[in-house]
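note to self: dont lose this again. the chain is below, predicted strucutre after it. 222 aa total, dont forget to put it in the shared folder this time
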Amino acid sequence: MSELADIDADVVVCRACPRLVSWREQVARDKVARFSDQTYWGRPVPGFGDPAARVFIVGLAPAAHGGNRTGRIFTGDRSGDFLYASMFRCGLANQPTSVAPDDGLELHGAYVAAVNRCAPPGNKPTPDERDRCLPYLEREIAALGELRSIVALGAFAWDGILRALAAMGHATPRPRPRFGHGAEATVGPYRLLGCFHPSQQNTFTGRLTPEMLDQVLRAALT
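---
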């Protein structure tokens, strides 16, 4: 527990990427109209969940008006609504919604984070920004002593997880596993599973359905 708290403390004060620092703070200052009465978090967003997690769910980065506003990953945006509803159905969360850090949400057997901890312009971190952030992911994986499965929400997360595991000494299988919805790979002691990201672009078009996400999360639990 203390290891994760130490990681969180390091994450929230990080200023390693000038472009991301400028963007996250600009978004927090120049608020959109629907959240104009709220105080934005405007800092890097730490991971969240159960220290005894067997399943680690990893996204791309906090949403500008989601995690960057609320201070909790996948909280206060449509992607989070979709993800946590599925986690609730699969027994990984005590409620299907995530609107604010004090809303009572608890995760059971699961931990959630992102490859990049700051909201990036256009949801596109650069390779250098990804690499500066990966040590936090490495530290979280190491701190989650019961971890067995890692779910990558999207190709960016899939690539970041493979890089983090390689840095930890877990060699990437050859040929290099390719991302796809439902893709699986064994890397060191971990089972890596791919899932389309629960972005509105995917969920509104039916590319990712609730049933598809449930299926991946249930597979991660087996």
